[in-house]
Amino acid sequence: MKWGLSPNRDEMNGMNALQRPALPPALALTRTLAVASLIALVVLSLGWELWWAPVRPGGSWLALKALPLCLPLAGLLKNKMYTYRWLSLLVWIYFTEGVVRASSDRAPSLYFAILEVVLCLVLFVACALHVRYRFRHATELGSNSSEVMS
Fold first, then answer.
1. Where are the domains of the chain?
2. What is the largest CA-CA distance in the chain?
3. pLDDT tens figures, 112-147
4. 21, 33, 55, 123: most buried by Cβ count inside 10 Å?
5. Chain segment 46-70, per-residue pLDDT in tens
6. Is the pTM of this model over 0.85?
7. DSSP state of 144
8. Which of 56, 46, 35, 60 is nearest to 116 (CA)?
9. Is 16 within 8 Å of 10 (Cβ atoms)?
């Protein structure tokens, strides 16, 4: 314990970062897909509404829709199970927007809407599979589920 900070879970268990077991490849892949598709959705939301095909010339306030997508990024990077769960619900709002705009907008906005739908589906599948694989990994280890599930 350094600088009077409380110890993290690994320090309390006597593990350092090198002793921690590596994530299985499926978990690493789903985590990478979730983070990449979330970042791509943020970039798409900003680019779409500010530069590429804004509703009004010069950009629109719809670019603020990217802000809620920035919140789960820290949780995904810290590999928090709870973030994967609630993000898999949040993503359906963006999916719905993409479907509505794909059916009502014209090109080039139509193409961005289709891309948004695809990215939302990738993000949902990555989050759902990550949660499933984490539960499976926890039961295979036979350890306390709080160690793997946090």
1. 23-149
2. 59
3. 999 999 999 999 999 999 999 999 988 887 755 455
4. 123
5. 999 999 988 888 888 889 999 999 9
6. no
7. -
8. 46
9. yes
